[in-house]
Design goal:
Blueprint lengths: L7 H34 L8 H32 L4 E2 L9 H24 L2 H12 L14 H8 L1 H5 L5 E2 H17 L9 H4 L10 H10 L10 H5 L8 H15 L1
Parallel strand pairs: 1-2
Bound molecules: zinc ion (ZN) (2 copies).
The site of one zinc ion has 5 residues, from helix 9.
């Protein structure tokens, strides 16, 4: 780690830059992998979209810095002063609490996202903060972090604040960040990777996958959630799934079995 006599602003800058690089690499790797999968599963889906993808990558790399700074500062404080309620020892928390902590983090992230997202759909704020994300019509695997800096900030502070209040094991935190990364990419990639029996099941009615978020990009004023459909269903903003994705999933399955 960094030497202890390093001036604090300098140390914070180095840690924030290091986390920014990690977030950027995580984005490039995850989006790159699912873009490759898209080329195999839905050849031609991103054809002629080079300009859009280049713009999405530029905004996403800027977002990586906005995610990296607060995470870097909290990481530095954890390392130097024991800030946060993150524990490295698995036995420090009861076994049953580990899955519960993951669920709590996802539910809080989802709640913050739903309400900040609805707020950003007010016309004035939309133009300033959220139009960047909706420039992707339709989105691609590279849209995952394509946000204006104001929108990126609303997402970037949730986990760094939560770790001060809700205890979590570092491995469970890794799991939360993995779910956030994978769902962020796959919900935008333009096709459904989850099986039909799950998406159309009783459980699927409460979960957000590509079929659900694509409809937000098609119609704007519905389907605001991140992981769960709880708030959308409670507030009457759930319009169901994208007809295009559901129809194409059916065709692909039909073609594969015929
Ligand atoms: Zn989106
Ligand atoms: Zn939106």
């Amino acid at each position: 780690m960094l030497p202890h006599d390093l001036p604090v602003p300098f140390a914070l800058l180095i840690v924030s830059l290091a986390v920014t690089v990690i977030v950027a690499l995580r984005y490039l790797l995850a989006s790159g992998l699912f873009a490759l999968a898209t080329a195999r599963v839905r050849p031609g889906l991103y054809a002629g979209r080079g300009e859009q993808i280049a713009r999405e990558v530029r905004w996403s790399l800027l977002s990586a810095a906005i995610y990296g700074a607060p995470a870097g500062i909290v990481l530095w404080g954890w390392n130097h002063f024991g800030w946060t309620m993150i524990s490295a020892d698995f036995a420090a928390l009861p076994w049953w609490y580990h899955p519960l902590s993951v669920l709590i983090y996802l539910l809080v992230q989802d709640t913050c996202f739903y309400w900040s997202h609805r707020w950003m759909h007010q016309p004035r704020l939309f133009r300033i903060a959220h139009a960047v994300h909706h420039q992707s019509r339709p989105p691609t695997a590279w849209t995952a972090m394509s946000f204006h800096p104001i929108e990126a900030l609303t997402g970037a502070i949730v986990v760094p604040v939560l770790v001060f209040f809700v205890p979590i094991n570092v491995a469970m935190l890794g799991l939360v960040l993995t779910v956030a990364t994978v769902m962020g990419v796959t919900n935008h990639m333009g096709w459904e990777m989850f099986p039909r029996w799950l998406v159309h099941s009783a459980l699927g009615k409460w979960l957000i996958t590509a079929s659900h978020h694509e409809r937000h990009h098609e119609e704007y004023l519905c389907n605001f959630g991140l992981y769960f459909r709880i708030w959308d269903r409670l507030c009457g903003t759930d319009k169901g799934l994208s007809r295009r994705i559901v129809a194409e999933a059916g065709h692909a399955r039909g073609a594969a079995t015929s």
